[in-house]
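Please, structure for the following, as tokens.
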Amino acid sequence: MSKPKYVLDSNVFISFVKGLLGTTPAAALPVDGKIFISVITRIETLAYPQISAKEEEKILAVLRHIPVVPLTRRVEKNAIIFRKKTKMKLPDCIVAATAITLDAVLLSNDSGLLNVKWPGLVVKRV
């Protein structure tokens, strides 16, 4: 039996990194499976305007250990359908589509994503 897969939403990944940096308590992440992030999460995390060079270096060190899922045609197709039907923000749609495409659980603290009902999308609060 294969281990479960998880996609971290940007808010969960940022909380996790802040915990590693010692600025907030570390987020409890599942350790019983494979963890991924969407390319959107990578962009949102590294594009933060007030990020220091030291913080960016530490984030990049963490990212070396977490696979980043690119925006493939399949993710794109799922994001387009999800966006048209839910009218959620496009970055959220891409993150959700990444989880759907990987058949993974989306870990998020976003109330919009937590409350959406969508075939193939499982969202859990961390």
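Residues 15 and 91 are 18 Å apart (CA to CA). Residues 5-124 form a domain with the Rossmann fold fold (CATH 3.40.50.1010).
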